[in-house]
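Sample pair:
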Amino acid sequence: MNSPIEVQSPESRVQSSNQKHINRLKIVAVLLSTLGVALFAYFIYSVGFHEIVLGIGKIGFDGFAILSFIYFLRILARGCAWKLSVYAPYKLGLRDTVPAVIIGEAMSTMIPLGILISGTAKAVAVRKKVPFVVGLSSVATENLFYSLVTGLFIALGGFAFLRSFDLADGWRITIDVLIVAIFALIVLGFVMVLRRWHFASEICEKLYKKGIAAGFLEKGRLHVRLFENLIYGFYRQYPRRFVPILFFQISFHLLGILEVWFVLSRISDAAPGIFTSFLLESISRVITTTFKLIPFVIGVDEAGAQFVTETLALGVGVGVTLAIIRKGRSIFWVLIGVLLIIKRGLSIKEFTEARREEN
C-alpha cells in the first residue's frame, strides 16, 4: 500500500530553508572560532606570555576602571541613539535602553551567531515598556544609523591607512575596492531614503518571481519591504532626529578612538597619536564587523591589531596586548550583561524563540 505523499506548506518550507541557513552558519562559526583560537594561541606564543603579562600590568586596576568607564559611555551613546529611534506614542528612557544595549552586546559577543539574536534580545529586554514589534522596529532603525556611520568610519580608516604607508599592491587594491564599495553603498542609502525608493524590496520581488532563493524570499521580501517602509516613515515623521542620532553614533566611534589612545598611552613606550589610535580602531571595527560570528573575535582581533602596530613600528607585541586588554574589558561587560539577563529572568532560549516568531 502506497503511503500518502506529505505536502509541505509554504511556512514549513520557509522554516526548513531558514533552519538549513542557520545550520550552515553554525558550521562556519565553529570553523572560524577554531581558527580564531589557533591564531590566539599562535600570537601568545610568538609575542611571549611574559611580555603580554607585563603589558597588561601597566594598565593597572585604575586604568582598567577608566577603560570600562569609557566603554560605558559608548554604550550610553548607543542607548541615546536608540531612545530617539522610537516612534510616538511609545517612548523609552535611558533606564530602559542602556541595560538592553548591554544585554544585546553580551549576546552578540559571547556566543557564536549571537549577532543574529542581539537585536531581538534588546527588543525582548524592553517589551514590558513597549510592544515587542515596536522595540524591534526601533532597534532596526538605530542599527541602520549605526551601520551608516560605521561604514563611513571604516572607509575613512581604510583611506587614511592606504595613503599613509607603502603597502603591497594586493593590499592597496583590496582596500581601494572596499572603500569604493562602502562609499557607493552609503550614497545609495542616502538617495534611497531621500527619494523613498523601494529598491531592495523590488529586487527581492523580482528574484522571488524568477524562483531564485524562493524559500528564503517567501517571507524575506516582505520583511525587506516593511523595513524600507519603517525607515522612510521615520524620516518623514522625525527629520529633526536624524542629526542627533548621527551625533551619538559618531560619538560611539570617537570614544573607541579614545579607548585605544588610553591603552596605548599606558603600554607603549612611544607617545601614541590620535591618528594612530584612529587607524587601530578603524581596523578593529572592520574585524568586529567581518568576524562577528566568532565569540569575542578571538584571534582575528589580535591579528589585525598586530598587523597595524607592526606597520606603525610601535613595538613588539603592542597590538596583541592592546587586543587582549580590550577583550578583558569586553568580558567584564559581558558578565554584567549576563547578570542583567539573570536578574530580569530572561534566557537565551527566550531570545531564540522570539527570533523564530519574528521570522
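The mean pLDDT is 81.
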